[in-house]
Amino acid sequence: MGVISALGMWGVVVFPIERFLPEAAQPAADIDWIFRFMAFFSVPILVYVNGFLLYFAIRYRKRPGDSMDAVGSPIHDHRALEAWWTAIPAVLMLALGLISYNVLPKYYGAQAATVTMEAIGHKWDFEFRYPGLKQSVYNDLYLPVNIPVTMDITSTEVREEDAVIHSFWVPEFRVKQDMVPGLVVPIHFTPTLIGNYRIICTEFCGVGHSDMWGKVHVVSQSDFDAWFAKQQHQAAAGPPPVKLAQGDATAGQAVFQQKCSACHNAAPFDQKKVGPGLADLFDDPKHPNLVNGRKANAADAADILEHGFAGSMGTMPTMQANGLSPADIANLVAYLQSLHK
Ligand code: CUA
Question: pTM of the full predicted structure?
């Protein structure tokens, strides 16, 4: 067991974590150091505890002929052993506490951030708000390299019925923070490596949980400025108009599968998932009106797709949150209409 432990501990020291998962932000290197420290001492504990477990299970197993209520060895306390297995973990925990005490302020403590922004968890999108930008950005987060960021992490507000806990996780940043309704937690990090990394929701938050992921694009300052200027321009201009007449039902079906089917069935109204079935949207005598109370027609359906709607049936996100283009909306309406032709 000593040999296996030594091999494992050596493996922990030499294993190049950053080769498989780049350290793309500060303080990723510190987090990896804590991880290595824990793994290093966990290896012998794992090997010895399970090794002895296995050894005793075999050595003191019930043999043929033993009575049904036979006991193994009558073992009583062993002072020296107990002292050791109390002292060693205590020292390890204390050391871990001291190291964490040193690293955590880099992550949670205030620092002179150049960008302070907000991340908000929704069912099932990440919303990001930048200072100086009127509209939110969904799922695709852009950050300039080497600029310290303070990100205020939270979730949809408590009073909204779909407020649940999400978790913001960027593995390459070693950044992970629960998004809790009603609680704003500022975290601090500095992206240090240009590239695209995953943002994953790592708290089960409903049927769309596995679909809740995004991308963080770490780009050069000039690329960031260009992107930001484009966003500001879009905010000023507003989204381009939806041209319903140009909708294509086949393309709409593909969009429906990809973007809508997590929450809606292409089936009658009563076959609900998160929201109602939509196959009879334009042809259901029992439900002649849309959720906004208006008669079901193409323009009003497009309006809900574009601006979203919150009502007794739940919340329909906006086109930005759903990642829909004006063409997608026209195609979706054409598809839903085609289901009755
Ligand atoms: Cu949001 Cu899981």
Answer: 0.71
